[in-house]
Design goal:
- The protein is α+β, with helices and mostly antiparallel strands.
- 26% of the residues lie in helices and 24% in strands.
- It contains 19 helices and 30 strands.
- A hairpin with a 5-residue loop joins β26 and β27.
- The structure holds dioxothiomolybdenum(VI) ion.
- The site of dioxothiomolybdenum(VI) ion has 10 residues, from loops.
Length: 753
């Protein structure tokens, strides 16, 4: 890690935006005041496949206050489809009468009030030429094909996995499945559009300020310079606000047509179909090992559901193929097209489902071998990527296992399933590996330095993770100022671009750019000081001058106040714009940054190193002997992720991920009525998520780690790793408690009866 004399990195720091958030001063997109808005309400399709034959809008138009009703008949041709990440087409009815899935936007009603828009929307009559839809795996009419491979999505392979599997002393061959899940961020999907002449401002919660700007400009056929996006705070995203949904262009067109701002707040149930979700997967894992536990073969096959036009898939085999030393690996991923909305990122998109399968299979192997599951990981730990031999930039997997195991009391575990009891409760202890690739993207930042303090501006994304605080800490650290002397501006595309806030790259991407812009300020101030014949630093090597404690300081300890040193450069404000292009990315990535393309240096696909954060989950489950009720009284999870900029918010991220992992293991599933391909539990009452009473004592251990290869600041990213592997740790604990291996999530009572 960079020299941190300030001690700010690693010091628990309350969120700089905490007070604004808890007092309601923080403006989420739909809170932004606009003058005289009209209100939109979406009409969504009630069939999952077919065509729209006609609309009867008469009853809707007669509702007092209705201003306009948009359908494909009157917006078609005014806007194209927003591409999904990767450029594939997605599902929309904007441009045609085609219905791709249930709950697709087919009309937008705009009225003077929300209530009038809603009433009129319910009176819109749509006549469909419906066809029988295919809902999911095993439905007649789905089509299957291998996923498209690319530089980012290969099918990792090495050696001869099938021969090695056939020859293995011990074999596991098992099939697993994970269900559809929806993010359900508390903040709903909202869009407010305002035109001033040819200029469009979009207030919308997003994880990609410049991506939203560029995509909507392209859809509308206007210059991106005419589009401004504003998203100062996002009330939860988890991937669901990472790509552009079809709603935005509808609302932009509505606002242009009415000549007044239009505001949409979609309903909770609409959020299930107008945005993305975690697609259901099926997987098969084959492990071959020698009697001493060493892996000799790993084959991981995956199948993922997607929409008809999109080939979206997550292919977590990029991760699972690299977890353990193994000379023979083979992976394959298939997409299965159904009449569904296009899925998308959801917290650790590839790793969450695929590590469930791998880590369950590892537990099955440990059981088969009569070996402790922690020892099985140790035997197969590796310093190099088993696929192509790159060294890991750092890898503290076993340190995480050892520290969490110690804290958990793992050595008191009786390995035999069903052997540990407490009255009527069967007690099970399980563990699993957590991991997430360490990604970093290009980013730019603007610094304005005056004698009164610094302002750092960048179009970054505060999705609840503490992004403002990371920037403030980094700038204060770099400029030798106090946190309270730094003001951070984010969430506005008038500010310099930052890559998409996805793939846990945000802290690494923004902090490395902020260090760069601050270093440029230091360099100029130091140069001016060295050049000043009347100053204290005349003739000193500028590189030896440092900013610390509000002063410019020389190697001999001599110093002067920053305000004085700054005065040599400017009587007003020093303003600097700097860009950071991570080493290993082509220069075109910087160009792409300004065009809203999300190019990242991925931990899975770097040439120099394999870059991952690691962790270990330990969980205790209790299954009631008679009712099979499942409780989880205790979790200990340890993580190691390089430089931790702010341990206070990092702990929250780790813990939040871990909680979600418990939830995903035991509760969450979007149920589909297979006859009509419709989500059934599309609300927060029926979509099961845990309440406080379900969440036990969760202990998070942060294992210190220094990584000087992953990026200059050694930051690995922490937003997603917490959820990864937790589902398997729970399933493994349930097996230990009951002797019953549940390979299909979620693990609910009925599966244990
Ligand atoms: Mo995150 S699911 O990579 O937006």
């Amino acid at each position: 890690m960079a020299d941190d004399a300030s001690g700010l990195f690693g010091t628990p720091t309350p969120r700089v935006d905490g007070v604004a958030k808890v007092t309601g001063a923080a403006r989420y997109a739909s809170d932004e005041p606009v003058s005289n808005p009209a209100f939109a309400y979406l009409v969504t399709s009630s069939v999952a496949r077919g065509r729209i034959r006609s609309f009867d809008l008469e009853a809707a138009r007669s509702v007092p206050g209705v201003l306009e009703i948009l359908t494909h008949e009157n917006v078609g041709g005014h806007a194209g489809t927003p591409p999904q990440m990767g450029g594939d087409q997605t599902t929309t009815t904007m441009e045609s009468d085609k219905v791709w899935h249930d709950g697709q936007i087919v009309a937008v009603v705009i009225a003077e009030t929300y209530e009038a828009a809603r009433e009129a929307a319910h009176r819109v009559e749509v006549s469909y030429a419906g066809e029988k839809p295919s809902a999911s795996f095993d439905s007649p009419g789905v089509t299957e094909e291998p996923h498209k491979t690319s530089a980012e999505k290969t099918d990792p392979k090495v050696g001869d996995a099938s021969a090695a599997f056939a020859a293995a002393e011990v074999r596991i061959d098992a099939r697993y499945s994970t269900p559809t899940q929806h993010h359900n961020p508390i903040e709903l999907f909202t869009t407010t559009c305002v035109w001033e002449g040819p200029h469009l401002t979009i207030y919308e919660p997003t994880q990609s300020m410049y991506g939203l700007k560029a995509t909507v400009a392209k859809q509308l056929g206007i210059d991106p310079a005419q589009v401004r996006t504003v998203s100062r705070f996002v009330g939860g995203a988890f991937g669901s606000k990472g790509t552009v949904s079809s709603r935005t262009a509808w609302i932009a067109i509505a606002a242009r047509r009415l000549g007044r701002p239009v505001k949409l707040v979609a309903t909770r149930d609409q959020g299930f179909t107008i945005a993305t979700y975690r697609a259901e997967t099926r997987q098969r894992v084959r492990l071959g090992a020698s009697r001493d536990g060493r892996l000799t073969a790993l084959t991981h096959d995956g199948w993922e559901i997607t929409s008809r036009p999109s080939g979206y898939n997550v292919a977590g085999t990029e991760t699972t193929a690299r977890m353990y030393a193994c000379p023979n690996v083979s992976t394959n991923v298939h997409v299965v097209h159904a009449d569904r909305n296009t899925p998308g990122f959801m917290r650790a998109p590839p790793d969450t489902p695929y590590m469930f399968a791998l880590e369950s299979a590892m537990d099955e192997l440990a059981h088969e071998l009569g070996m402790d599951p922690v020892e099985l990981r140790r035997v197969n730990d590796t310093r190099v990527d088993p696929i192509d031999g790159r060294p890991f930039s750092s890898r503290s997997l076993m340190a995480c296992f050892d520290q969490a195991a110690e804290r958990f009391g793992w050595r008191r575990r009786d390995r035999r399933p069903g052997s540990m009891r407490d009255g009527d409760w069967l007690v099970g202890w399980g563990c699993a590996t957590a991991t997430y690739p360490s990604n970093i993207g290009p980013a730019a930042a603007r610094l304005t330095l005056t004698p009164h303090g610094a302002t750092v501006g960048l179009a970054g994304h505060e999705i609840g993770t503490g992004a403002y605080t990371v920037v403030a800490i980094t700038a204060a650290h770099s400029l030798g100022l106090r946190i309270e002397d730094v003001r951070v501006l984010m969430g506005d595309s008038e500010l310099p671009p930052v890559t998409i806030a996805g793939g846990s790259n945000n802290a690494a991407s923004t902090a490395n750019a902020v260090v760069k812009v601050c270093e440029e300020a230091r360099r100029r101030i130091a140069q001016a000081a060295a050049n000043d014949p009347a100053g204290a630093f005349h003739g000193v090597e500028p590189a030896a001058l440092r900013l610390a404690g509000g002063s410019l300081t020389g190697p001999d300890g001599r110093s002067e106040p920053l305000a004085k040193a700054l005065g040599r450069v400017t009587a007003g404000a020093l303003e600097i714009h700097a860009e950071n292009l991570p080493e290993g990315l082509p220069p075109s990535a910087l160009e792409g940054l300004y065009k809203g393309q999300a190019q990242m240096l991925r931990g899975t696909g770097r040439r120099d190193v394999a870059a991952f954060a690691f962790g270990a989950h330990f969980v205790e489950v209790r299954v009631h002997r008679l009712t099979r009720e499942i409780r989880t009284p205790r979790v200990v999870s340890a993580f190691s992720a390089g430089t931790i900029v702010n341990p206070l918010t990092a702990r929250s991220q780790f813990m939040g991920g871990t909680i979600w992992g418990l939830s995903a293991a035991l509760m969450e599933s979007t149920e589909i009525d297979r006859r009509v391909a419709r989500y059934v539990n599309d609300n927060l009452a029926d979509y099961l998520i845990p309440v406080n009473a379900d969440i036990p004592d969760i202990e998070v251990i942060i294992v210190p780690e220094t990584d000087d290869r992953v990026n200059p600041l050694g930051i690995k990213g922490i937003g997603e790793i917490g959820i990864v592997g937790m589902n398997a740790a729970v399933a493994n604990a349930v097996f230990h408690a009951t002797g019953k291996r549940i390979r299909d999530l979620p693990i609910r009572i009925e599966k244990l009866l």
